[in-house]
Amino acid sequence: MLLSCRELEAQREQLQRIQRKVDEVEAHADRGTFIMKGMKSVFGGLFRKKPDTPKEVVDKREKERLAKLEAVDAELERRAAAREARDASRSGAGGKGAASVSDAKVVRDARIAEEDALLEQISRNLTGIKAIGHAMGDELTRHDGIIDELNTSMDRTAGKIDKVRSDADRLAGRRS
To answer: Among residues 46, 50, 22, 37, which one has the least CA distance to residue 157?
Structure first.
């Protein structure tokens, strides 16, 4: 399971790298549009603000995404604290009472104590598995946000690339 958590973290980093590349391509498309409009007329580029460089665009969007990720992480930490508090209250409510030891039932009490120890170990293991499951769920929540944003960016970038392509074709006289 720990391997799965590491794999999910590696996938998040891959998604973030893809998002940076999409931002870079989009910035190049914006610059292409700017250049195409400048080629259409003599004064096309004189009074318009030049688009940001790809590095500026990527850096600006990285800062925005970092702020969003910090908000998501804060929410996930709040949920984890709530889960821990809930689990602590549940385990405290079902506490063990003092065992009465009878001289005639020493063997039975020893077996019960051994079973209690095994059940306690199983409980600790299940708690660890539950924590790993929550960590994986949290990572998938992060992935979901990144994938949604990536999908939006890809759609926006594809539209910009199509516009640059059609502008270039129009300038080259291939289409009207």
So the answer is: 22
**Looking at per-residue confidence, does 5 or 28 come out higher?**
28
- Residue written as token pair 């990572």: 139
C-alpha atoms less than 13 angstroms from C-alpha of 62 in its C-beta half-sphere: 13
Q: In whole angstroms, what is the distance from residue 70 CA to residue 80 CA?
A: 15
> Poorest-confidence range of 19-33, 48-62, 144-158?
48-62
Closest CA to 168 of 34, 27, 44, 43: 34
Indicate the length of the chain as a whole number: 176
Place of tokens 């998501």: 72
State yes or no: pLDDT of 95 exceeds 60: no
Q: Examine the pLDDT at 48 and tell me if it is beyond 60.
A: yes
Q: pLDDT band at residue 103, thresholds of 50, 70 and 90? A: low
Question: By CB neighbour count within 10 A (0-12 exposed, 13-18 middle, 19+ buried), where does 15 fall?
Answer: middle
Whether pTM exceeds 0.70: no
- What residues contact residue 151 under an 8 Å CB cut-off, 6+ apart? none
Sketch the domain layout of the chain as residue ranges: 2-40+50-75+112-172
- Give the Cα separation of 81 and 94 in Å (integer): 20
* Closest among 51, 61, 48, 30 to 160, alpha carbons compared: 30
